[in-house]
Design brief:
With 178 residues, the protein is mainly beta. It contains two helices and nine strands. The chain is elongated. It binds zinc ion (2 copies).
Amino acid sequence: MHPFSIELSRISARGLSLELQGSPEQLFAEEEREFVILTPVVLTGEVTKLEEQVFFRGVVSTLLEMVCSRCLETFRLPLELAIEGLFLPAPSHWDPAADFFRADEGAVDTYYYREGRIDFGELIHDQICLALPLKPLCRETCQGLCPHCGQNWNEGRCECREEYIDPRFEILKKLQQS
Ligand SMILES: [Zn+2]
Ligand SMILES: [Zn+2]
């Protein structure tokens, strides 16, 4: 049974407070992972039900390890994301293996459920993917590597004569001087 799923029948008229946790392997396919998840993924929040519509609002948190795109060192990135999602009964022709989980139903991310179970896995998966930086940086001021000798400039300068200066830093320097 998927750790991020619940029986619909557990949601009372007052709603339901949730705390679920599971391992990253249950959320991400191997080839998808450009990062390591160091801790279990924890989902907390409130589920409410109005007739067949189920609404979730809460927080997903975990700790990632990524590779810095400038210096190639690994660094830790704690995630704590406010998320919400709407769950609707799946249409009868819906095939989870072939079709998208997402239904396009306006502003709130919408997913299908069926057989009386709500699965938050896809919602969590999508939100973590959206939160990942396109160019992960160990820190905003990461100096990167020397293109000549490969020295990590965060740990000190190298002996190379021609200093390569990232144009972005040039702009920053000018800004700081003015
Ligand atoms: Zn770096
Ligand atoms: Zn160098």
